[in-house]
Design goal:
The complex is a heterotrimer of chains A (155), B (94) and C (122). By secondary structure, chain A is mainly alpha-helical. Helices cover 74% and strands 0% of the residues of chain A. In chain A, helix 2 runs parallel beside helix 5 (110-142) and helix 4 packs antiparallel against helix 5. Chain C has a single domain, classed as Helix Hairpins, CATH 1.10.287. Chain C has helices at 2-7, 9-27, 31-51, 78-108, 113-121. The chains are: A mainly alpha (155), B mainly alpha (94), C mainly alpha (122).
């Protein structure tokens, strides 16, 4: 069901494009403050770079660079970063998710602390969205039997 | 028979919605109720209060950050649900 | 009547798209086509909701630094924000629906609705 397509042009072009895709996703994330962009958009573009590898080569190529364990870890890490950034405000007797409490830790005023708080939670959102998109794609495409597909493609 | 009934229901629903379009405001009206209550405050106060010029990012992440946190947990739950539905380990043969 | 057509013509396109998705969800027999109808329905509602935030003569909601911002110069950012959440929820729903379709196919061997109902009733 998962075939091995052996085309030289597709493989070479996708191999060239993948690092540019990842740098572009980080660019879109960092410039979310002053132009359209942010966490969700950057996460989708980063997921697209792994899916491009899986489509042009075989599934094992994407899994070698982004294993199943790392995938599950990243899914949880993003939500943890988001909730953790909000919970630090509780320690300093502020409201939950009130980023101006970070001025006690970072050397910034109350206005710039909110700026940095927004950047931190967008990082959490980007990591979660990227990991979940790659995980859903790999699960659907192999219909769950990821180990069996890898074995079949190695023979 | 099924298709004819569905077509009639669809056309009826469309006509009802078109009848409701009469009450809508003009296209692009700056004084319509959606643009009047709280969004002028977001646009005017986003730079002095948060330091972020992009109003969409500051509303999404700061003024309405609680919604975004639960939305991130929704997409995490979807990933876990697809894993639970579809992955089968090597040990058991079903 | 002509003024009614000219001023509110955009709403007619959105209603047409919503009705196309609605018909697809009800009338088609294949489960995959029902899913595509649900997707069209969802995306056309998101499109409509974003469009109610437009203003005549407004620009992107990115405030130009160095001067005080007037609300009449920038389009409404609130529908964009709410619809970002809706888009992500739509992606989650579609992913889980596709996983359910894979399981149904694995169990019954077909994706037509009437054949599956007949196989369940036996």
């Amino acid at each position: 069901m998962v075939r091995n397509l052996d085309d030289l042009i597709v493989r070479t072009c996708s191999r060239i494009m993948v690092p540019f895709l990842q740098i572009y996703s980080l660019y879109v994330y960092v410039h979310g403050h002053t132009s359209p962009g942010g966490g969700f958009q950057g996460g989708c573009i980063m997921a697209a770079s792994f899916i491009l590898l899986a489509v042009a080569y075989d599934i094992g190529e994407a899994k070698r660079r982004f294993s199943e364990r790392l995938n599950a870890l990243f899914c949880c890490l993003g939500v943890f970063i988001y909730a953790g950034t909000g919970a630090v405000s509780l320690i300093f007797s502020d409201n939950f998710l009130d980023y101006s409490a970070w001025r006690h830790i970072l050397p910034a005023g109350p206005v710039m602390a909110r700026y940095y708080g927004i950047a931190m939670i967008e990082l959490g959102v980007e990591i979660t969205v990227m990991a979940v998109m790659v995980s859903i794609f790999l699960d659907l495409v192999t219909a769950g039997e990821q180990e069996a597909v890898l074995e079949r493609n190695h023979d | 028979m099924n298709r004819l009934l569905s077509l009639c229901i669809t056309v009826l629903a469309g006509l009802l919605l078109l009848y409701g379009v009469e009450e809508f405001p003009r296209w692009g009206d700056p004084q319509q109720p959606a643009n009047v209550h709280v969004s002028p405050r977001y646009i005017e106060k986003t730079l002095p209060e948060t330091g972020v010029p992009n109003a969409v990012t500051s509303v999404l992440a700061d003024y309405r950050g609680y919604d975004t946190m639960f939305e991130t947990s929704v997409i995490f739950t979807a990933g876990v649900a697809v894993m639970m539905l579809l992955r089968r380990s090597r040990g058991k043969k079903s | 009547m002509i003024e009614y057509l000219l001023v509110k013509h955009s709403y007619w396109f959105y209603i047409a798209m919503i009705m196309v998705g609605f018909y697809g969800m009800m009338a088609k027999n294949n489960l995959m086509k029902k899913l595509i109808g649900m997707n069209i329905f969802q995306w056309s509602i998101i499109l409509y909701y974003i469009s109610i935030g437009s203003k005549k003569g407004g620009t992107l909601p990115v405030v130009v630094t160095g001067q005080a911002a007037r609300a009449a110069d920038y389009i409404n950012p609130l529908p964009h924000v709410l619809m970002l959440t809706a888009i992500v929820v739509g992606v989650a729903t579609t992913g889980i629906a596709l996983a359910l379709l894979v399981i149904l196919y694995r169990k019954y061997g077909t994706l037509e609705e009437d054949e599956i109902i007949k196989a369940i009733k036996q």
